[in-house]
Amino acid sequence: MNIKSNVDPSELAKFSELAHRWWDPQSEFRPLHEINPLRLSWIEDFISLSGLQVLDVGCGGGILSEAMARAGAHVLGIDLASKSLRVAQLHALEAGVKEVQYRECSVEALAEETPGQYDVVTCMEMLEHVPDFESVVRSCSRLVKPGGWVFFSTLNRNPKSFLFAIVGAEYVLNLLPRGTHEYEKFIKPSELARACRADDLVQQDIRGLSYNPITRRYWVNQDPSVNYWVATQKSVS
């Protein structure tokens, strides 16, 4: 796929319209704020981020990027939504977080420019928003050093996931704006695993993320049937 073509303009417009609300923990991005400590903790179960070169693909307003920088990493966040990036840059400046930078570019373009430059690559809640998720996986693999880690999170494609992630989250509980997700773009764990294997990423862990609407609590578990996280490591040979 052409480097510049792996983007859905409607997805960019969707997040650009909400860009000013990224750092409002009571906004449409509340779920990201609430799961962010869980995401960071899970990543650090595999590798200490302190002093590492980290790339955050599809960083949006920088919620995870900033958290990893605060954990001691040198972080570059990339995205194609310029409004979201401006919000991320401004927030980092106001918060005094110096070890994070942002850049407007695609992961495919960066992979051509600086292959093998990162100790860790994260790509969270992004794969289900692009036309060709395999292109993103391939580029993430090119960008990470041999032995380095690549972390993905996305949504499973099955009836339960449709019910929970779209009907429940967008229409019943109003956790997310309606139209945030398209079921056809959801990715089965087997499909993601196949793409990772094809690009020398060895899957080391898979976890599920669940939500209780009564207690309004998220937790990590062993059930990848809806939201799931995958930890992979780049082959050394």
Brief description of this entry?
The protein is of the alpha/beta class and 237 residues long. The chain contains 8 helices and 8 strands.
Descriptive overview:
By secondary structure, the chain is α/β, with parallel strands linked by helices. It has eight helices and eight strands; from the N terminus they run ααβαβαβαβαβααβββ. It has helices spanning 9-17, 30-44, 63-70, 82-95, 107-113, 133-143, 159-172, 189-198, and strands at residues 53-57, 74-79, 100-104, 118-124, 144-155, 201-212, 217-221, 227-234. It has an eight-stranded mixed beta sheet with strand order 3-2-1-4-5-8-6-7. The longest helix has 15 residues, at 30-44.
Distance between the termini: 26 Å
Average pLDDT score: 92
In the CATH hierarchy, what is the superfamily?
Vaccinia Virus protein VP39
* Rg over alpha carbons: 16 Å
Low-confidence blocks of residues: none
Query: What is the H/E order?
Result: HHEHEHEHEHEHHEEE
The biggest sheet amounts to: 8 strands, mixed
Structural class: alpha/beta
> Which strand order does the major sheet show?
3-2-1-4-5-8-6-7
Number of helices: 8
The total beta strand count reads 8
What is the helix fraction of residues, given as a range? Answer: 25-40%
State which percent range the strand residues make up: 25-35%
Q: Under CATH, the topology is which?
A: Rossmann fold
The figure for the number of domains is: 1
Shape: globular
The CATH architecture classification is 3-Layer(aba) Sandwich
Query: Regarding CATH, which class?
Result: Alpha Beta
